[in-house]
Every structure is written in C-alpha cells, then in structure tokens.
Write a sequence for this structure.
C-alpha cells in the first residue's frame, strides 16, 4: 500500500528540478526560489508574469489548484491586541521582512498548485505593487481561482485584472477596509483586552515542567 | 483501461450534450425565466448557504451560491492567539469532524519547530482522526437520504453516530469540540476500556454501512435520482481544486493519507483508496460510503498494535515557534484541509491561511448546476457535501 513511488523519489532533485523546469519555461521572470529538501518548494515570480507562471506550471502537469491568497508582511501596528486601551500606544518595530523566496513589496499574492500524479506541490509568490495593487487573474488558467480571488480582493484589497466579478463574498458590499490587512484593527480587541492573554504569562517555578501543557 | 475511460468520457459527453440540447430548445421556445432563491434557511443547505438560481422552465441556466452568513474571521483571529490557543478556533471549522481540523494545524506548528509527536500519540491521533471521519460521513449518509425523501436512513445515522461520539467524548471529554491535540502530542492517554469499546462500535458501524448500502444505494429511486446527475469530469475537478471523495469520485486516485509522508500512522496499516470513474452524484456518495467502511478497518488495525510509551514529547512550557513558513494538509472528512502557517518566531502565527475543503468544493456549484433540473439541485448539493463552517471559516 504505502510502497508508492513518492517515497523513493529523492526530494531534493525532484523539487529542484521543478524550479529548473519552471525557470526554463518562464526565464527571467522567476525571481527567487527556496527549496526545503523533502518538504516543499517556494517560487517568487515577477508580477507581470503571474498568469504565464500559472500556465507554465499547468503545462508541466501541476493541474490541481489548491488555493490562492495573500500575505501582508507589515507587522501589525496593534500587536496582538493586548495593549491597555487607555495607555499611549507602545513603540513597535515596523520593518517589513518577507519570508521564503524574498520579496520587495508589503503585499504578496500566494498560491499553491499540486501535481496530481507525483503529489508534489509548489508555493508561488508574487509581489503586488503598493499604490495600485493589481495582478493578473488566474481564471483562464484555473477556473477554481475565481472565488479565491474574490476572497483575496475582499480581505486584502488586491485587484485581479481580468476577473469578471470581484464582488464581496462575506462582507456587506458597502463595507470599508480590508480586514486581513495588518493595519485593519481587530475591533473586539481594541475595546476590551482579551482575558486569554493571561495564559501566556510564565508561571512562577514552571521552568522544570517536562510536560509542557502551555495552555 | 483506456477503452473504458473513453467509454466513460463519451457517456459524460452525451449527458452534457443532452442537457445543452434541452437548454437550446427552451431558448427557442422563449419560455419566461424566473429567479429561484434557495435559502439562506433551507433544509438542503445544511446551515445558511443561499443559492440564487436563474431558471428557464425547469432548468437552471445560472446559479450562484452566496456565502458569508457564517464568516467568523478565523484567519484574522489566529493572528492574535498563541499557537496552543488556535486549536480551539479551528475545531469549529468543520464541526462534524472537529478533531480532524486540529491535526493539520498542529502538524504545521510541529514542522516549524522540527519536533515530532511520540509514536503512541501519532497512533491515537490517527484513530481519533478516523473516528471523526466516521462520525462526519455517517451523518452525511443519513442526511443524503432525507434530502431525497427517505426518512429512515437519518435515524440510523444519528443512532450509530452517537456511538462514535461517545467514544470521542470518552477519550477527549468533548463530543463535538475535543480540543485534544497539542503541539508535541496529546493532552491525555486513552481511557481504560477504550480499545474494547471501539472494536464493538466499529463492528456496529460496518453493519450500518451494509444497511445503508442495501437500503439506500440499492434503492431504485435513489439510483435514478443520482446516476448520471451532476457529472464532474476529471480535469474540471482538478482545476476547481475539488478534493477528497469528490475528486476520487471523478476517477482521480489521490488520497493525502497515502500519498504524502506525515508523522501519522496511516502508512502503518493496510487499506484501500476507493475511486469511482463516473463523477456523478452517485459516485460521490458511493465513494464516501466505502470510505466509512475503510475507516472502520483502519481503526481496527490501529487498535491491534498501538505502541506503548508517552503521549507527549518534551516541549517547552511557553511555545515559541521558530521563524519560517510551513504548509501541511491532511485528508479530512470533507477533503483536503490545509494550513499555510507563517511564523515570525513569535508566540502566535503571523499569518495563517486556512485552506478548507468545502470552499473549493462549493466553488464548482455555478459550473455544475448549469443546465440541471430543479430537483437535481438538491441531490447535487447533497452529494458535493459541504459544512457551512468549512466554507466561510
């Protein structure tokens, strides 16, 4: 049963091979990549090559569309919402540091496609220019991207050029703001500090616990 | 194999062609259209999903689900919680198989921390995971009947699901929201008598599957309501990101329990991945029925040789997860459920993308409902099987 071909493929060459194949398909548009041997692949592509990357991967056999979303790399100005609302706001580090495969912009689109035969997936990232955050829609490549792009548009305010209908999925159509951006406050935390935060305070003499039941 | 595949393709094509011909006829006759609003409060939507369908006679020309009645913003909430606190949230995504939601998140955190649960914890996790699947999908089987006017199956399903919920409650203390999985292992070991009791229940559940197979799947009305209805070909299923039984019913042999290496016990036992070539409503229901039976066999085998030892690895009291990104997905009762966790070396995740199965499974509804007849809307939705909390998150 478990003697599947997947177990025998050496993860490193297989995953590095995907990056090499993709680079030969889209050329200079592949900006950066990160391979964790035996685990996963991250690839960052140029914004104007976003759809072409999807098409190239689909042609390489990555036919399964897993998800599409975005990441806001700006550290939240509100922290974890544990501040005392009456005290002045504390100083916070606001340097933007992107994750695997680097990046230049605050917002990045993140997508994942998987090969249905080898079961290896690729995580794709693409920078989104800040003043006018728009990337190409993936609907012509993966029809399933439709709802994911609507959700990303609603939650992050990223536009998708070529999407037929970027209506809100969850929120009322007149809702202002993009809830998953880091500068959108979690209002429930703003009005009343969350009592659960007490759980993460170190307990006196708790350092020698061998069973870390941290909650 | 190729000859049967082409045969199936031809059958699907002829079905689609027949539907298209009907639609054309209606256009030529210039029948007056109407808009049918199903839900948000409708028994066929398992919660609050609203479906707006534009009808032409008895046929749907355009349909669009409208979500958001149960959006709870879990992705935002994870950013203000610590890692151990997140499991309490994600429990409520697919509320019929709650324990299965915790596992991929915990595995993602463990992957970033580069720790692994002890073998005994891995086995118990797998057992509870499969019990959640049985509890979840057995209710689907009962519910399926009730949507087509068969009342008896749902009573049987509630009766037998109760045994499984009792087991989960016995082990974890919670019937629906166990919150039992911990980074590095499990909260507790199994209670005394769990193994014997589970064996008895698994036998009952196999009887339940046989009953369902005879009562429902052999029923002529059921077959005529589901066979050839709502056909989803393989390539469409893949590009919409359908997963789980919906994908396997379209002939894709892919099960994340088998096809990836996770620190879980599925690859330690012998079991079979069920697929069906047809891709219609019947195939989706049939694959789920087989999976429940297969799950009972997995649990039985796992019970035979649970390794001894601790159920918790050594983890620090205050859990800080090192910087990095990780993606872990598992084969949940509804399909592929995954978490993309971005950590900044903090007490809580920097960003969590929750990839839930139902969101993708339902996004195909506008495609698959085009051209079907009104009563088939209900069977197609039922067979795609979604949980509202899993769509809206």
């Amino acid at each position: 049963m478990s003697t599947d071909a997947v177990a025998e493929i050496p993860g490193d060459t297989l995953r590095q091979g995907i990056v090499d194949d993709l680079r030969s398909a889209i050329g200079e548009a592949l900006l950066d990549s990160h391979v964790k041997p035996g685990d996963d692949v991250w690839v960052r592509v140029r914004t104007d090559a976003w759809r072409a990357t999807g098409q190239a991967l689909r042609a390489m056999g990555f036919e399964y569309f897993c998800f599409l979303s975005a990441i806001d790399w700006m550290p939240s100005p509100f922290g974890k919402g544990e501040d005392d609302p009456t005290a002045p706001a504390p100083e916070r580090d606001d340097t933007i540091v992107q994750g695997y495969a680097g990046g230049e912009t605050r917002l990045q689109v993140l997508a994942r496609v998987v090969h249905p035969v080898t079961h290896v997936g690729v995580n794709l990232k693409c920078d989104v220019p800040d003043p006018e955050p728009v990337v190409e829609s993936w609907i012509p490549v993966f029809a399933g991207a439709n709802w994911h792009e609507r959700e990303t548009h609603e939650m992050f305010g990223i536009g998708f050029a070529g999407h037929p209908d970027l209506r809100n999925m969850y929120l009322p159509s007149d809702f202002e703001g993009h809830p998953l951006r880091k500068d959108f406050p979690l209002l429930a935390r703003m009005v009343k500090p969350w009592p659960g935060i007490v759980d993460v305070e170190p307990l006196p003499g708790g350092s020698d616990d061998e069973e870390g039941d941290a909650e | 194999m190729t000859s049967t595949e082409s045969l199936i393709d031809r059958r699907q094509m002829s079905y689609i062609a027949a539907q298209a011909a009907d639609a054309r006829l209606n256009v030529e006759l210039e029948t007056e259209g109407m808009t049918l609003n199903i839900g948000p409060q409708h028994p066929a939507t398992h919660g609050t999903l609203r479906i707006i369908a534009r009808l032409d006679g008895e046929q749907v020309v355009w349909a669009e689900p409208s979500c958001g009645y149960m959006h709870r913003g879990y992705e935002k909430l994870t950013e203000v919680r610590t890692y151990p606190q997140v499991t309490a949230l994600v429990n409520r995504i697919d509320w019929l198989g709650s324990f299965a939601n915790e596992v991929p998140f915990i595995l993602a955190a463990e992957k970033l921390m580069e720790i692994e649960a002890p073998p005994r914890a891995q086995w118990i996790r797998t057992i509870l995971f499969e019990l959640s699947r049985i509890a979840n999908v057995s209710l689907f089987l009962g519910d399926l009947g009730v949507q087509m006017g068969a009342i008896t199956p749902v009573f049987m399903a509630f009766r037998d699901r109760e045994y499984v919920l009792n087991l989960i409650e016995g082990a974890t203390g919670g019937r629906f929201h166990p919150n039992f999985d911990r980074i590095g292992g499990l909260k507790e070991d199994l209670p005394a008598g769990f193994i014997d009791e589970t064996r008895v229940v698994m036998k009952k559940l196999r009887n339940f599957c046989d009953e369902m197979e005879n009562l429902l799947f052999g029923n002529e009305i059921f077959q005529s309501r589901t066979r050839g209805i709502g056909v989803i070909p393989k390539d469409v299923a893949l590009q919409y990101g359908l997963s789980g039984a919906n994908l396997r019913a379209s002939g894709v042999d892919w099960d994340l329990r088998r096809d990836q290496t996770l620190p879980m016990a599925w690859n330690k036992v012998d079991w079979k991945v069920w697929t069906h070539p047809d891709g219609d409503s019947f195939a989706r229901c049939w694959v789920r029925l087989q999976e429940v039976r297969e799950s009972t066999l997995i649990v039985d085998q796992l019970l035979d040789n649970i390794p001894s030892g601790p159920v918790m690895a050594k983890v620090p009291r205050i859990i800080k997860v090192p910087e990095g990104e990780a993606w872990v997905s598992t084969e949940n009762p509804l399909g592929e459920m995954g978490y993309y966790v971005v950590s900044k070396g903090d007490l809580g995740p920097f960003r969590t993308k929750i990839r839930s199965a139902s969101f993708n499974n339902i996004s195909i509804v506008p495609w698959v409902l085009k051209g079907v007849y009104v009563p088939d809307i209900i069977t197609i939705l039922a067979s795609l099987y979604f949980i509202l909390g899993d769509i809206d998150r």
In short: Chain B has one domain: 82-357. Chain B has a mean pLDDT of 85. Residues 112 and 207 of chain B are 42 Å apart (CA to CA).
